[in-house]
Structure formats: C-alpha cells, structure tokens
Predict the 3D structure of the following.
Amino acid sequence: MPDSHSTGPSVAFDAVTKRYRGGAVAVDDVSLEIAGGAFVALVGSSGSGKSTLLKMINRLIVPSAGLVRIDGTDVAEGAAPALRRRIGYVFQNIGLFPHMTVGENVAIGLRLAGGRDTAARVAALLDLVDLPQAFAVRMPDALSGGQRQRVGVARALATAPGLLLLDEPFGALDPVTRDQLGTAVRALHDRLGLTTIMVTHDMAEALILADRVLVMDAGRIVADATPQALLAGQGGAVADALVAVPREQARRLRALEEGA
Amino acid sequence: MSPFLEAMTRVPPLLAAHLLLAAAALALGLAISLPLAIWSARRPGVARVALAFASLVQTIPSLALLALFYPLLLFVSGLVGGGIPALGFLPSLLALTLYALLPILRNGVTGLAGIDPAVIEAADGIGMTAWQKLRLVEAPLVAPVLMAGVRTAAVWTIGAATLSTTVGQPSLGDLIFAGLQTQNWALVLAGCVSAAGLALAVDALLGLIERGIATRRRGRVYGAGAVLLLGVLAALAPLAVPRSPTIVIGAKNFSEQYILARVIGHRLEQAGYRVEYREGLGSAVIYGALSSGPIDVYVDYAGTLWTNAMRRSDTPARPAMVAAIGAWSAQTSGVRLLGALGFENAYAFAMRGEAARAKGIVSLDDLARAAPGLTLGSDLEFLERPEWAAVQRAYPIRFAATHAYSPTFMYRALESGQVDVISAFSSDGRIAAEHLTVLTDPRRAIPGYDAILLLAPKRAKDARLVAALKPLVGRIPVASMREANYLVDRDRGKVSPEDAARWLERRLGL
C-alpha cells in the first residue's frame, strides 16, 4: 500500500476518439489532463461516452485515434495485462470470480504477480473496506450486494495501484449502502493518495465525492468544473440540467421539513 | 457352471481391450475437441464449422463409420507406401474418436459462451493474460458443463466400441456378435452386461469428478481420477508381459467359421503355439486382414475370392479354380493357399421340401418361371454380391419381393412361410435337418465354393505351422461339416463352437 505521502499518477487524454464500426462515435476528440491525486467524477446520461472514455485508460477499449498517457507514458506501450495490474478497476457488475472464496478473489492480483503468502494482506484489505476478516473463507454468493462490492474494491486495491478507475461502482446498490460505500471510497482515496476517476450518472454523488466534475454529452466534455462552480451555475446548459435534479429534490425536502 | 458364468470367464481380456480402446478414443477426442472448443468460443465462424462437422459425424451409423475407415486407411497406406494398418485398433480408434468429439465440443462451447461477461471483464480488468484467464477463470467455470459432455462421450464410446469387432479389434462385441450368430444368449448377455457395467462404472466415476469440481472437493476429483487411471493401468498390464509368439486365427461371422477356427486353433496349440481368435470379421475385410498382417490364418471359400477379390465371372471346374486362386494370392500378396478342406459351402437356393414338390421346382430354371409369385429371403450381403448378379444374368429371375435377414432369422422366415426361397449355404446343417430342397444350377451360374485354408505371407514359410495344418487338407466331408454346424445352429440342445469343434475332431479322427 502506498503511504499517505505519495500521490497517484496523472492521466492525460490527447485528442482521443472512439468510433465504432457502423459509424457511431462514442468519444469525440477529447483532450484533458487529470492531475495526480485528484478525485474526478465523469458524469453524463446513458450513451454519453463516459464509460468508453474510462475504459480507454486501462485499454479495455482501444481508441480509434488519439493517445492516453499515464504520468506521461502512452498506455499503448507494452502489454495490456502489465498495464492493468498497475490500475485498480471496479465496475457496476463487480465480476467476483464465483469459484473462488472472498480471500482468493482479493488475493488474485497478488497471485498473478507471483505472491504466495497472501493471508495477512487479504486480512488488511478486508479491514480497509470494513469487512470482517472471517469473510475471507466465504464464497461470493453468500454475500450481500454491498458486501460484494466492498470485496470488489479490496480486490482492486490489493496490488497497491496508484490509479483507481470506478465505472458506476455503486449503481446497483441500495441508497444507504451506496452512501456508505461512496464515503468509504473517498476516505480510501485520501488515505492512500490515489488518483481516482469515477464514472456515474448520479450528479449528487459526483458533487459530494469529487474534487472535479466532468460532464459528458454525445462523446464530448461539455463542462469541467469544481462542484462549487457547478452549483454556482458555471457549467453550462447540460450541467445545469443535471445539477437541477438533486437541487430541486433538496429544496422539496427542506420545504417538507419546514412545513412540518 | 451355468452357461452365463461360463461366458463371463471370457470377459476379462476382452474387457481390458474394450477399456483401452474406449479410453484411447476418449483421450484423443479430448485432445482434439478441447482446443477446438476454445478456438470455437473465440471465433463464431470456427464454431459453426466444427459443430456442423461433429454433428454430421453423428448422423453416420457407427457401424458404417467403422467400416468406412477400412478403405480410407487402405488408400492412405497406399499413398505413403504401406505400413498403416487398415484393420484392428487404428480404424476403431479413429472412428470412436470422431464419435467422442460432438458432446465434448458442444458442451465446451456452450459452457464458455455461458460464462457471465462481468467475470470475463473482471479477469481482463485485473490484468490476466489470455492463458491466465483460461486457466484460472474459464477452465474452472466451464469444467462442470464440460464434464457432462465428457460423460456422454464416454458412454457413447464404450457402447460403440462393441462394434469394433467387425473390423478385427477385440472388444466385448466379440461376445455379442458370436452369441447372436450362434444364438448363444448367455454369450450375448455376458457381452452386454459387461459393456453396460463398464459404461455405468466409468459414468459414475466421471460423475464423481464432475460433482467434485462443482463443489470444490479436490479429494473426490483426485480419488475418482485415480480409480479411472488404475483401471486403465490394469488393462494395460497384460501388454507389459512379454508373450510367446501368438498365431491369430480369423473367422467370419457364422458358426462354421467359428468351428473351423477352433479346429485350427486346437491343432496349433498341440504344435506348441499360443493362439488367439479374431472372430466376426466381415467377408470384405478378412482377406485384407490376412494379407496385411492382423490375422495369420483363416478359412475362406473359393467362389468368394473368385468373384469379389479377383472379379472373375467365369465358372471353371472346382480344382482348377482352387489352383488359380492359389497362384493369384501367392503372386499378388504372398498369401499361401495351403489347400482345400474337402467340402464346399456354396451359395444355393433352398425351399421348403413340400413347397418345392407342390410347385414342381427342382432347378433354378423352374424357379425363374415361378419367381414372380414368390418372395426371396437372403442374408445381409447376398443381394449385393456378384453371385446374385451372375444368377440373374443366367436365369431371368424376378421375385415378387426380397427381404434381407441375418442367417439365423432367414431360416426362421423360411420356416414360417414369410419367404418362399432363401439364399442358403450348402454346408448348413439346417438344410438336412429342416428337410429343405436345394435347387440345382443347370447353367452353372454360381462358381465353386471349396473351403480353402489360407496363410498370411509372414507364415507362408513356417514349416512347423504348415505341418500342423496340412492334415486338415482334404479331410472334412460336407456331411460331417453339416452335422457340426447343426450342433451349433439348432434351437434345442445346442453346443458351443468349441464343443462342436471337439466333436468334429473326434469324428474325423484328428
């Protein structure tokens, strides 16, 4: 685990485009820089290209044009598995290996790197995501959805990556679990000095957790601002429409409280 | 000892051969279909072609598939200048391997396609290489589905392996075919029970492995695997013991052949040879088996070689024909014709005695006149044989209908009146016993069928072997052969070919 003084790597997109066969453009000429240690949220509606943009960082998707760089190095250099082992990846469907125990799932990255005695490390990782150590011997199907995603986060952090990619990580969870896990991930980000990039369609979550919010629409970045700036209406029309939803909900809740 | 228990004493060596054949076919099937399944799962085009081919193979009857490998391997052997056996283990292995492909391939492809895409995304996201993904994720997840396919393949292979008897590979089918032919139901039962028992045992062990994988119990997987391995090793053990030279005696699939094979075997054993029997070979392959090596000696019939292998349609006198066959076989393949045994087993047309008398039929000329109102019952190959074509050329015979039977059932059909005429064999004991009339052949359309003793090229100069068998030449009159045949072929009080052979030896003073 990196100590709290080090920070994760920077990530840069340089004129990145993803065009699918048949002509559909998922990501349209995106250029931007993400500083090491930042917590960035990528927000947009379904089909806006946010997941595609994220997956081009760990080469699950290959860009049609342009470059992605991590700490200045083109990700296309070298073998994809080697790149991915340096990057934590958590996604909505979790994808725990159903034939392995929780402990084996968490330790899989260490095993790929040749690690043998992983028990202590697994225990530490389960502590990190607030799961009892006894869970190590359980099978994934004996866990609740929230517990499974905590295992997913522990698995992603096992090899102490500096960069954490989250693709709608809490999308399938109930609101209480979602809130707890979001807070937990933000705490891990701060404690481990990670660079974290999170895709979400939930603007409230983005505003609360991230330092910087990118709004995507039709493959382009249409807003790039701090949460405070977005709330102040400086993000443009698409961003304003997304911010309006949680703001309106908050207003109604307050009105209910005051009326009572 | 009960007939069934006696028949069971013949099981162990055949069971071992059966198990080895099925295990080899299954192993080869796995070696081919596993990589093919992985490739198919990655490329839908490959999956279409591979599954279509495997399905096509399944539509070929297994007996035909086995038989097809004989000409195919002969052809390939000819291309590379010989040395590839066209009979025995190799064609059986190849045919059964093809049979094992489909269930393994289909379950493998289905299993790989059914893995949760999220799991694959996680494996990629975590940084697994393609090989690590296969080994750590895909293989364990697909294993239970795949094992179900392996179980199906194992049961199919063990069942179909009984048919390898027809191409000269020893298997439990030896008992089934010999028993069906001689109506020795104890033998059939012993073969069936053993084959079914083997299939059930292997299926149960593979099932244990399947559940062991699914429930992550390594002990169970390794335990059942060890039992399977031990079984194969036990079957292999006899092969490791050096054996004294063995003479393999071939026989076609009817009682007379089984009896004569035993008579030959007894004489060779007296001369100090170890002998082994390869029974139930088809007429079409047995001469090839002799000239190419799998068998060392067998009895064939002059007319069979004359019309089939030599493709002759003339009908010279019997001694001239035997001499011509001897010259031909020595020249073309080095096979030695040791001599004629003294009796003929010719194709003959036979009718129930009283029916023939009532219709006034004594010759094929008479039959040709009456044929439009009669039904012919034949054995399974007669209608395709050149003898039938020759008869049709010489006599304008057109039957109202024709039916093909296995020999035993052909006599039943004649007896019950389902057919009026049958293609009988002149040395068959049932002709005299059932008072059948054999029709004469005034135009000599059917050639002579002297039983002739043939030796493989590698035994042709074996003086001790020749000395042991020479006394059989000219020694067996047709009446004795008929009686011996009838001992096996009759319904009540039948004896085994082994006992009939002993009876014949005593009768002839051998």
